[in-house]
Write a structure and sequence with these properties.
This protein has 235 residues and is mainly alpha-helical. The strands form two sheets. A three-stranded antiparallel sheet has the order 3-4-5, with no helix packed on it. A hairpin with a 5-residue loop joins strand 4 and strand 5. Helix 5 crosses helix 7. The radius of gyration is 42 Å and the shape is extended.
Length: 235
């Protein structure tokens, strides 16, 4: 216990008290002075920094080697497994049912609900301005307005309501964008989703064939009747 108490006192590290037992002198000599401890820590940090890898040329050379390896693999795959070329794209004709990637489908679907032109301004310009205006407001303006320190959802009802509405609308328009301009079987019935994502029930093929046969029969009967009438007039 005496040795521990002596270690906690800096002055005992550089001076020798009178009447100090000789067995305590080696313990005091092992303890470095306060300045020596700081200098040794700095030297250790310098040694750790010096042991690190320099950026140039060691780290730079490794990155260059990896880049050339990746390029070599890509060129090898391109040579031995070439991708077949398709028909040349025609910028004047848009394929039917062409859609963007799934993360842009909600924007693609929202653009359909705006009119083609409002006065002189095109409807697409208004739609894009509206969408980006809402996004900028939610990302930059709303955090400034709702700057309360509370972060629990129950204590931020307005922000949570806006978040739920935005996520729900984004999911809804994404699903509508996927289903639009497609024919889907739901149960035993077949539905065609129009440009706006509204489903319309498709008439069964048997009913269509039956209606076509009825029209053909009525046309033949009318043709025979008219020919009979023409023969009677000639007589």
């Amino acid at each position: 216990m005496v040795i521990r108490k002596i270690r906690t006192l800096p002055r005992f590290q550089i001076t020798k008290l009178p009447n100090m037992p000789e067995q305590l002198e080696p313990e005091l000599q092992k303890q470095p002075a306060p300045g020596q401890e700081a200098s040794s820590a700095v030297e250790d940090q310098k040694e750790e920094i010096e042991e690190g890898m320099p950026f140039f040329p060691n780290h730079w050379l490794k990155e260059v080697i990896v880049i050339f390896l990746v390029l070599g693999i890509l060129l090898t795959l391109a040579i031995f497994f070439p991708f077949a070329l398709h028909e040349k794209a025609d910028p004047l004709s848009t394929p039917i049912g062409l859609k963007p990637e799934w993360y842009f489908l909600w924007v693609y679907q929202v653009l359909k609900y705006f009119p083609a032109k409002v006065s002189i301004i095109p409807g697409q310009t208004i739609a894009v301005g509206f969408i980006f205006g809402v996004l900028i407001f939610l990302q930059f303006v709303w955090p400034v307005l709702d700057n309360r320190p509370e972060r629990h959802p129950k204590k931020r009802p307005v922000g949570m309501t806006i978040a739920v509405i935005v996520l729900t609308l984004g999911l809804l328009f994404t699903v509508l964008g996927i289903l639009s301009e497609r024919t889907v079987n739901i149960g035993k019935n077949k539905y065609h989703f129009d440009l706006y994502g509204i489903p319309h029930k498709v008439i069964a093929e048997q009913q269509v064939e039956h209606s076509d046969s009825i029209e053909v029969r009525t046309g033949d009967e009318s043709g025979s009747v008219s020919s009979d009438e023409g023969g009677n007039h000639e007589k």
